[in-house]
Write a structure and sequence with these properties.
The protein has 434 residues and is α/β, with parallel strands linked by helices. It is built from 15 helices and 15 strands. The structure holds pyridoxal-5'-phosphate (PLP).
């Protein structure tokens, strides 16, 4: 399908340094990802540099884990200072960083308590355990009968229990037997969700915006209605803000944008400033307080290195400056991308500095558009075939965003004019999720 004289990302196009680095990695890693053929060795702010010295604008920001930019000097200083003191104590002892961190994070969220973990999936798993224990001990659900309602199209991580309630065949197939106790209902439909609630329902677990599904934004009254329904029916509302939270959508939490306070916030990704993995469940004492010593834990959870960085992240969010940037620059990005509607773009969905762009599948795949963007110095990632997501670090500038929009326009024009092939050598949409 390659047209003569058109460019495509093939092994032959790669520089020796890039080809060698990819070859080495591919020969000894499990192939559970399908990265773009770029090998990054350096990053500063919104820009990264590859092994050949070529610079790229990072429009993925490690799935929003790098909201504050690569090598953010404040965060690197916090990490460096803590590296020289102590990095790990385990929770068998106290450390002097955990207390200040949980106090600051609980304050930011307006809640009583924080359960620190490491990865997003662990925060989700922890919330499932907490909701079940709350159901048996507080709500009075019969033993082993608790159910949790989730939404179709969800992405909450990769563990066995979490993939048990995914609808994505790539995430699920061949990984059974699955964990029971979950019911999935259409996303955005509050009525369907209420219909699914019965006396055994302990929680609703929801992404305020479905990021991996392609920045799917529910109706404005959806979360407020879920809040009203869950309160009335004595069911916990758990907001997975692992990707939507911590500034991305122009607020500390996407829930803030719709005037909703959930029972539990799940945080991760940007909480570690792109430096360390750290996640958290944040909620009030009547819920998080159900956990007793010995019932849950993590060797690295709450370690002083991660909490020192996490505390610096919370302090940065405390000023509101990053949320304001995301709102202001989000409008620049959204306006720019909207001009491409009808020019190869069929739909645009935006919340703060988070934009989902549906490419006309007749023109090219999302993967192909990302390959061509890469050649032009912009890194982005496709999701679910024909959608690309732009989520640059919040430290990006308006000029950077204009550059990204210009490159996207050029890629779409090249494709429409037939100057580049609409397919790459290795069309493949697997492993496009974090
Ligand atoms: C990334 C993500 C997770 C999982 O986080 P990991 O750190 O990859 O385990 C969970 N929920 C949402 C909404 C996410 O975007």
């Amino acid at each position: 399908m390659l047209h003569p004289g058109t460019s495509s990302v093939t092994a032959g196009d790669l520089t020796p340094a890039t080809a060698a680095a990819i070859e080495l990695e591919e020969s000894h890693t499990a192939h559970n990802y399908h990265p773009l053929p770029v090998v990054i060795s350096h990053g500063e702010g919104a820009w990264v540099t590859d092994v050949d010295g070529k610079r790229y604008l990072d429009c993925l920001a490690a799935y929003s884990a790098v909201n504050f930019g690569h090598s953010n000097p404040v965060l690197v200083d916090a990490a460096r200072a803590q590296l020289e003191k102590i990095t790990l104590t385990s929770r068998a002892f106290h450390n002097d960083q955990l207390g200040p961190f949980v106090t600051a994070l609980a304050g930011l969220a307006g809640k009583d308590m924080v359960l620190p973990m490491n990865t997003g999936a662990e925060a989700v798993e922890s919330a499932i355990k907490i909701a079940r224990a709350w159901g048996y001990r507080v709500k009075g659900v019969e033993p082993d009968k608790a159910t949790i309602i989730v939404a179709d199209g969800n992405f909450h991580g990769r563990t066995i229990s979490i993939i048990s309630f995914s609808n994505d065949p790539d995430a699920r197939n061949d990984f059974g037997p699955y964990t029971p106790g979950f019911i999935s209902v259409p996303y955005g439909d509050a009525h369907a969700l209420e219909e699914a609630i019965d006396e055994n329902t302990v929680a609703v677990l929801i992404e305020p915006i479905q990021g991996e599904a392609g920045i799917v934004i529910p109706p404005a009254d959806y979360l407020p209605r879920l809040r009203e329904i869950t309160k009335r029916r004595n069911v916990l509302l758990i907001a997975d803000e692992i990707q939507s939270g911590l500034g991305r959508t122009g607020a500390t939490f996407q829930c803030d944008n719709v005037g909703v306070v959930p029972d539990l916030y799940l945080l991760g990704k940007a909480l570690g400033g792109g430096i360390v993995p750290i996640s958290a469940v944040v909620g009030d004492a009547d819920i998080l307080g159900v956990l007793k010593p010995g019932e849950h834990g993590s060797t690295f959870g709450g370690n002083p290195l991660a909490t020192a960085v996490g505390h610096a992240v919370v302090r940065m969010l405390g000023s509101g400056e990053y949320q304001e940037r995301a709102r202001r620059l989000g409008r620049v990005l959204e306006d720019g991308v909207r001009q491409m509607l009808g020019r190869g773009v069929v739909d645009v969905r935006a919340a703060g500095l988070w934009v989902g762009i549906d490419i006309d599948p007749q023109l090219a795949s999302g993967r192909r558009v990302c390959e061509l963007l890469m050649e032009r110095g912009v890194l982005a990632k496709d999701t679910h075939g024909s959608t690309i997501r732009l989520a640059p670090p919040l430290v990006v500038t308006a000029e950077d965003l204009e550059f990204a929009v210009e490159q996207l326009g050029a890629v779409l024009d090249e494709l429409a004019a037939g100057r580049v092939s609409p397919v790459s050598e290795e069309e493949d949409t697997a492993a496009d999720l974090p």
